[in-house]
Amino acid sequence: MLAATALAVALFAADAAPPIVIDGSFTDWTAAQPALRDPADNPAGPVDIGAVTVVDDAAFLDILVELGRSANLQRLDGRLMLVIDADGDASTGMTQYDLPGTDAVVVFTPADTRDETRPGAGVAVRLPGPEAESVSPYDWGIMFAPTYASDRAEVRLQRGAVLSGRGPLLVGDKAVLRFVVIDRSGTVRDTTDPIVHTFATPFAAPTPAAGGADPLARPSGTDVRVLSWNGELGAFFSRPEHFARVIKAANPDILCFQELKDDASAEKLTAWLNEHIASEKPWTCVFGAGGGNLRTAVASRLPLKPVESFDRVTYRNASGAERDVRAALALVEVNGRQLLAASIHLKCCGSAG
After folding, report:
1. Which is it for strands 226-230 and 254-261: parallel, antiparallel or unpaired?
2. What confidence tens digit (pLDDT) does each residue in 152-190 have?
3. Residue 250 is part of which domain span?
4. What is the distance between the alpha carbons of residues 246 and 187, in angstroms, rounded to a whole number?
5. What letter does residue 29 receive in the DSSP assignment?
6. What are phi and psi of 236, to 5 degrees?
7. Of the candidates 106, 103, 91, the residue with the CA atom closest to the CA atom of residue 128
8. What pLDDT digit, counting tens, does each position of 262-318 carry?
9. pTM for the model
10. Separation between Cα atoms, residue 151 and residue 68, nearest integer Å
11. Same structural domain for residues 159 and 237?
């Protein structure tokens, strides 16, 4: 999914670079002033909202929120709700969490509907109404960073999105939003005041790159291109046409794969690449030896050799049991120099404690 998202972004060119880059570094927020400072009043909750800063450009609404403690937005011990009146009109939408006119709610760590005793995971978008709906955060082009535990987070919402026939969203003069923190019992633990954001930049839909130029063409001076892709339980082999199309367009020299099933092998992956992504230089592959039922691999059209000292890397989990890190490492020769390529698949769904 990450590779597909990167491709979609590359197909459009904005007139000017956006002022904020969603990368978890926060260095580009220094000139922006907080729209709200919520007091420290939720010591026992999943997070304790502090300062909230909101900026926009023609394509995006960007939000920086202080969390009060180190937390992973995708694995909270509770839920963080971003409640949004996308047109700033209280007469449209519905009242949600005391915000009239709510058009959508972004839920960080939605509840686990299969097992209420377990914490939730991930991100969801709820659309309030007589028949409430849920849509994928990808439909709204939602981005956030970091994806690991941090005491701050930056969130991006795409302007102009249409969700299940509702919208376009965030294209008017203003929007109203608030954050709500809920514990696992469903009790509201923290709520910010509504933040009224007046857009500084009129909405403008992104325009395709002009002149027929290849948006994925390699910049001058590029020695090597690397593509890393989580293949979702070995889906490379069951749906080769989808993956091959993107890999061909990206035209990488080195591929780092994750989530290959243990019935795959270096020989099987090499044959797949040479069949579906054939090139003048044949592909070769290093397949991770450890990792249980999910493996990783490094493949390249350049000369490569395995780093056998990393064939098995272990760690102890919370119960003390020894587990394998899913990893594959290879030395790739690039213009007479050696590049260490590592494909590592860390355990998902962890929390900050």
Report:
1. parallel
2. 999 999 999 999 999 999 999 999 999 999 998 889 999
3. 226-345
4. 44
5. G
6. -50, -40
7. 103
8. 788 889 999 999 999 988 899 999 998 877 778 899 999 999 999 988 877 887 776
9. 0.74
10. 6
11. no
